[in-house]
Amino acid sequence: MERTPSATHLLLLAVIGWGCCLALGAGQLPEVDPATVKDLEELGAHYLPAGYTKANVSLADLQRLLRAKCEKANQALPAGSVNATALGTAIEQAGGQLMGCIGGLANVTEILDEIEKASPKGDLDVVFEKYCLRLPQAKACLRDFNAALQPCLTREERSHNALMQRIMDKLLEFVCYKNGDQIALFIAEQGPECLQASRDHIATCLNTTFSGYLPQVGQLSSENVADLLPELVLGPRQCVDLHDFEICTVRHLERCETITPSNIVESMFRYVRKESNCQPAIDRALQERRRAQALTAADPAVGGAASLAFVGRLLLLLAPLVARL
Ligand SMILES: *[C@@H]1O[C@H](CO)[C@@H](O)[C@H](O)[C@H]1NC(C)=O
Ligand SMILES: *[C@@H]1O[C@H](CO)[C@@H](O)[C@H](O)[C@H]1NC(C)=O
Ligand SMILES: *[C@@H]1O[C@H](CO)[C@@H](O)[C@H](O)[C@H]1NC(C)=O
Ligand SMILES: *[C@@H]1O[C@H](CO)[C@@H](O)[C@H](O)[C@H]1NC(C)=O
């Protein structure tokens, strides 16, 4: 089976859950595998908002961002009681360790090689079983990184953090469901090709839904950059945005040759959503939208009233004419 390595790279990186924002940082950390850096940069170039390139965002920018975030999270504490620079540095180091930790469990180059060799023989499941057995270690890597984040989270963010950690675990579990059956199926059914073919659309979905969450590149050096950073919470707004992103993405993936990739991605979203407390917020938003839509068009009662009003206004306009007759 012919496949483009970059598509599979994309898939693997995306599903392993390395956020796009790590892409910029990783490019500047010496201890990270250059192949991984290249993949992350490609991901970042494609999915980060316009202007977020390595050329525009320096390591110093990212460090300042982290420091500002750590400062802001601890602003209620007495001045001088926390060293935001040290906390930021700790996160940065933890990020490097996360990359190294995951890299030690799964070398992307090697996985691609193994996939390439296994797929003609129909042995993809063997490959994924091997890597899925390392799932507990991967979770531990994430947990260590998450621990370094804690001192720089606000009280509210911290209260959401356990949930986010659980969601991250769920995502990994989804990929490794039945020792990787799910992802083996995804690859066999041309999921990577489908993602690749849809990537501009997915980037648009991302941009439409989430562009408001990140500061513009030009604002990165502003004094109050911490105020421009998103809150790392999964509140009603984030839930609805995630749902919109899901609908947008799945709709595009449905156009691929087979429906399987779209189905798998959709069930991944569903699997993760079940773990969150998002459903009520999503239901409420959908209901409100339906109501708003009904008001503008579909509802016959409102529509009827609107046309009555229109006829009335028309009559008023015509009245002088009629009177003159
Ligand atoms: C990943 O594997 C390739 C090929 O075996 C190797 O050249 C590379 O150094 C490995 N990277 C890491 C980080 O181990
Ligand atoms: C970012 O870099 C690109 C070129 O990579 C440039 O065209 C753009 O103006 C830069 N944007 C900002 C805000 O610096
Ligand atoms: C904060 O920690 C850094 C090391 O990360 C150190 O260089 C700096 O002097 C510390 N600042 C204060 C005010 O303690
Ligand atoms: C992303 O969204 C922003 C704001 O909605 C818009 O200004 C920008 O042109 C979009 N960029 C792309 C590449 O679609």
UniProtKB/TrEMBL annotation:
Keywords: Signal. Residues 1-23 form the signal peptide. It holds the Pfam family DUF1397. The keyword Glycoprotein does not apply. InterPro entries: DUF1397. This is 27 kDa glycoprotein. It comes from Drosophila madeirensis (Fruit fly).
